[in-house]
Design brief:
This protein has a single domain (about 10-195), classed as Rossmann fold. About 50% of the residues lie in helices and about 10% in strands. The chain is built from nine helices and five strands. The chain has helices spanning about 20-30, 35-45, 50-60, 70-80, 85-110, 125-130, 145-155, 160-165, 190-200, and strands at about 10-15, 35, 120, 135-140, 180-185.
Length: about 210
C-alpha cells in the first residue's frame, strides 16, 4: 500500500449528473474537505465583480437583473441555445482564470489546516488546465439516461433543457486520461468501497 502523502490535491471531474456531489459528500465524511468550483464561480459573480464585468462585456447587459446581479437563466439561455456556437467556450475562457486563483488560495488554506487531502470538484478540470496542479484526477461517470433523470430532478428543468445540457458535455472517452474512474449508476453506498480503495492507493490517510 502507498504511504500517506501530505495533503495531495485530487481533482474530481465528470459530466453533469454523474454524481460528483455524492463523491464529495463521502469524502467530507472521511475528513477530506472539498472545493466546489461551481460554488466558487457563483460567489465570484456577486457584484461588484471583475468576473461579472467580463461576462457583461461579452454577452451584454441582458444577462443582469435590475439590481446588477447575474441573471443565470438568461445567461444559460444564451450559451446553451441551439446554434450557440462557441458561446459556452467563451463563457469558460472568461471565468476560468478567476476561479483558478480562488481555488489555489483555498487549497493552501486546507493544507495549512492539516487536511489529509483536498478534493477539487471541477466539471471543467481539464478544460481549465487545473488538472496540471492536481496530484491525481478522479472522474465520475454514469449512463446518459441516469444523468438525464438526475439533472431534471436536481435543477427542476424540462426534458428539453436537460437534453441541451447533456449535448453540451464531453463524451465519456474524454475522461479516459483520469488516474481513476468510478461508475455511479447505483445507490451512493456502492461508491464507498471503490472510492476508499482508490484514495488509499493514492496515499490519502483515511479512517
Amino acid at each position: 500500500m502507498t504511504s500517506c502523502r501530505r495533503c495531495p490535491v485530487i481533482g474530481l471531474t465528470g459530466p453533469t449528473g454523474a454524481g460528483k456531489g455524492v463523491v464529495s459528500g463521502i469524502c467530507r465524511h472521511w475528513g477530506i474537505p472539498s472545493i466546489d468550483t461551481d460554488a466558487v464561480y457563483h460567489a465570484l459573480l456577486e457584484p461588484p465583480s471583475a468576473c461579472l464585468d467580463g461576462l457583461v462585456a461579452s454577452f451584454g447587459t441582458g444577462i443582469c437583473n435590475p439590481d446588477g446581479t447575474l441573471n443565470r437563466p438568461a445567461l444559460s439561455a444564451i450559451v446553451f441555445a441551439p446554434g450557440a456556437g462557441d458561446k459556452l467556450e467563451l463563457l469558460n475562457r472568461i471565468t476560468h482564470g478567476f476561479v483558478l486563483d480562488k481555488v489555489r488560495t483555498l487549497c493552501r488554506a486546507h493544507e495549512e489546516a492539516g487536511a489529509p487531502a483536498v478534493l477539487v470538484d471541477a466539471p471543467l478540470l481539464y478544460e481549465s488546465g487545473f488538472d496540471r496542479e492536481c496530484d491525481r484526477v478522479l472522474a465520475v461517470l454514469a449512463a446518459p439516461d441516469t444523468r438525464l433523470c438526475r439533472i431534471m430532478a436536481r435543477d427542476d428543468i424540462s426534458l428539453n433543457a436537460a437534453l441541451a445540457r447533456l449535448r453540451a458535455q464531453k463524451p465519456d472517452d474524454f475522461y479516459a486520461r483520469a488516474d481513476g474512474i468510478l461508475y455511479n449508476d447505483g445507490p451512493p453506498a456502492e461508491l464507498e468501497a471503490p472510492l476508499h480503495g482508490l484514495l488509499t492507493d493514492w496515499g490519502v490517510c483515511l479512517p
